[in-house]
Amino acid sequence: MSHPDLPVRRHRAFREHVVPELDVLLRVALRLTRNRQDAEDLVQDTVLRAYRALDRFDGAYPRAWLLTIMRNANRNRVRKRWPELLADEDRALAMLPARGADGREGPAESVAEAVPDTALVDALGRLSPAHRAVVAMIDIDGLSYHEAAEVLGVPVGTVTSRLHRARRKLRSRLQRVDVA
Asked: Does the predicted model carry a pTM greater than 0.70?
């Protein structure tokens, strides 16, 4: 039997822990899916799973908890769509925008301002998917190293080394086209 106050407590916990993170969830989902409709579906799936699991959440680090749920939901989504994604390589390698998914300038704005969009997009597109994902999450979306590690399911040290290598490769590529 469930406690009569459980729905009230769950609703309060949802407002306190999930609602404030919706913008971050959408930005990360847009990076993961590169498609607004898929991103909204992923956020909806994440929020629904979080709501169902709120009674098991201890209240610590809600963003990390939600990003872990999103990572797992995205894995399931990709597994189901794997044959479709393999058939559409262009979509899988779509270009990254120079601005965050919400349209605001991110931490990389100084580079984005100085580099023509086509050169930056080309340089980002030439990175490996692992390096591109880390740059997008940290430099464009403004996630912390810990949050990016949670989303990617890798240690923070891996995020740090990937970001260092990715930035070095970007700098090298942009210098070759004489914009860095």
From this structure: no
